Every structure is written in structure tokens, then in C-alpha cells.
TrEMBL record:
Domain SUN span(s) in chain numbering: 1-126
Annotated protein name in UniProt: SUN domain-containing protein
UniProtKB keywords: Membrane, Transmembrane, Transmembrane helix
Gene3D superfamilies assigned to the protein according to its UniProt record, in alphabetical order: Galactose-binding domain-like
Organism the protein comes from: Cryomyces minteri
Main subcellular location: membrane
Subcellular location: Membrane
Pfam families: Sad1_UNC (PF07738)
């Protein structure tokens, strides 16, 4: 594992996508710090809801959970050789409302460290936290 970042959102949402941005390959001498495989986890406090999300998702995440009440809802792979260095991926939260998310960088393209230039979580607004 290369790192993770937690997000405490100001509003509840149903996550629907994630955008990863890194410096373009054509603008750097070394692209190997770009993330490669990432996981998206959300907090689901209710145990019945957590079980439902786990049953409905079609995702297998590597490693241990990021926390007691978290479930993995997506894995994505950032492609360092793509012309577009801003890449958006759909994720399926199975309609679950959350206000906490964690993005785990599971691997990168070879460097000892990983750089994330911008990370955006997209979703359906469900009101104040």
C-alpha cells in the first residue's frame, strides 16, 4: 500500500464517481510517482446497510478495511500513458448515503512515493451532514 487520504464531506452524498489528476506524462521527466490502483471506501454506520452494500457491490478490494464501519465501493486504475491526465471513473455505492470517504492508493507506477495532484469525489447531494 502506498497511502490513503480521508475526506470528511460538509454534506451527505451518494458517491457516483471519482476523478484522479496527476501531472501529464509529457510534462514530466518521471511519471512513476503517478498512482496506479486505487480503492474507494465509504463509511456506513448501520450494520444492515453495510451488509446490503457489500452484497450488492461487485468489487474486491485488497488488504484490510480502512476502518470498522467502512466498505469498499470501487477500485480504479489510473493510466499514466493516457493523453488526458484528468481521469474520471464511475463507482457504485449501491445508493448508500455517506459523509466520510477514504481513497487508498494501493500501487503506483514504480516510485517510492505517490503524488496525487487533485482528487474529486462526485455524487448525488443528500443534504447537510
Amino acid at each position: 500500500r502506498k497511502g490513503q487520504i480521508g475526506v470528511l464531506m460538509s454534506r451527505k452524498m451518494i458517491p457516483t464517481g471519482i476523478t484522479i489528476e496527476h501531472i501529464p506524462e509529457r510534462a514530466t521527466l518521471d511519471i512513476t510517482s503517478a498512482p496506479r490502483r486505487l480503492q474507494v471506501w465509504i463509511e456506513v454506520k448501520d450494520s444492515d446497510e453495510r451488509a446490503r452494500v457489500e452484497a450488492e457491490r461487485r468489487v474486491i478490494c485488497e488488504g484490510e478495511s480502512v476502518g470498522k464501519n467502512f466498505v469498499c465501493i470501487g477500485t480504479v486504475e489510473y493510466e499514466k500513458n493516457e493523453f488526458n491526465h484528468v481521469q474520471t471513473f464511475p463507482i457504485n455505492a449501491a445508493g448508500t448515503v455517506t459523509s466520510k470517504a477514504v481513497v487508498r492508493v494501493w500501487s503506483n507506477w514504480g516510485q517510492e512515493y505517490t503524488c496525487l495532484y487533485r482528487l474529486r469525489l462526485h455524487g448525488e447531494d443528500k443534504g447537510p451532514r
